[in-house]
Amino acid sequence: MINYRSIQDTIVHELEIKKSRFISYLIPIQNEEEFQINLDQIKKEHPKATHHCYAYILEDTGQIQRMSDDGEPSGTAGIPILEVLKQENLTYLMAVVVRYFGGIKLGAGGLIRAYSSATSQALQISTLVENTNQAIINLNMAYKLNDSFQYLISQLANPPQILNSQYLDTVIHQIAISQEEAALLEQQLADRFNQQIDWQFDHIRPVNLPIKNSSKKP
C-alpha cells in the first residue's frame, strides 16, 4: 500500500529569464512548523530578493495546501508552483521560488510560465519516493536450509531485503518485505520447506522507496 509520494532530498535549482533570477527550493517536510523554519532560513539567505513565493502540500491525501504570491500579481506565482506539485501527486513537500528582479517586466503570462518552469525544472532533477509500509519478519531455520532459502528469494521478482542475520544454533534472518507480498512469501516458504522455517512477524515500518520520475526528460 502506497501512503504518499514525495521527494528524497532537498533540491536547489536556478533559472534566469530576461535577467530575473529564479532560485527554486524543493524541501521534504512533515508539518507546517518545518515549513516555517525552512522559509525563514531561505529568507535569511536571500534578504535582498524581490519575492519569496511558495506553495506546500501536507498530509497523506494532500488535503493541506497553502500558497503565496508574496507581492507578485495575484495568481501568477503561488498557484503555478502548487500546480506543478499537484501534477505529480506529491505531498509532505514545500516549494519556494526566490526571485531577483532583473529590470524587465514579464507580464502575468510570463510570470506564470516562469514560476511553473522554475518549479518543474527543480522537480526534474529530484528523486521521487513512494512512502509505503513494509513488514519486518524474523525467519528461523536450520543451517541446512539456508542456501536453498537464499536461492529461492534471489529468484523472486521483488526479493525481500535481509536486514540482519544471526548464525547461532540456527540461522535467523530478519527481512523487510512489502505488506502485500508478505503473505505470498510466507506461503511459498511453507510449501517449499514443508513449514520447517519459523515465520515470526515483528512489526510494520514506513519506508521511502525511490521511483521513476516521470517529469525527468529522457
UniProtKB/TrEMBL annotation:
What lineage does the source organism belong to?
Bacteria, Bacillati, Bacillota, Bacilli, Lactobacillales
The record's section on InterPro entries has: Impact (IPR023582), Impact_N (IPR001498), Impact_N_sf (IPR036956), Impact_YigZ-like (IPR015796), Ribosomal_Su5_D2-typ_SF (IPR020568), UPF0029_Impact_CS (IPR020569)
Per the record, its GO cellular-component terms are: cytoplasm
* GO terms of biological process kind: regulation of translational initiation
Transmembrane regions = none
Q: Which residues form the Impact N-terminal domain?
A: 18-123
Which SUPFAM superfamilies is this protein grouped with?
Ribosomal protein S5 domain 2-like (SSF54211)
Can you name this protein? Impact N-terminal domain-containing protein
Which family is annotated?
A: Belongs to the IMPACT family.
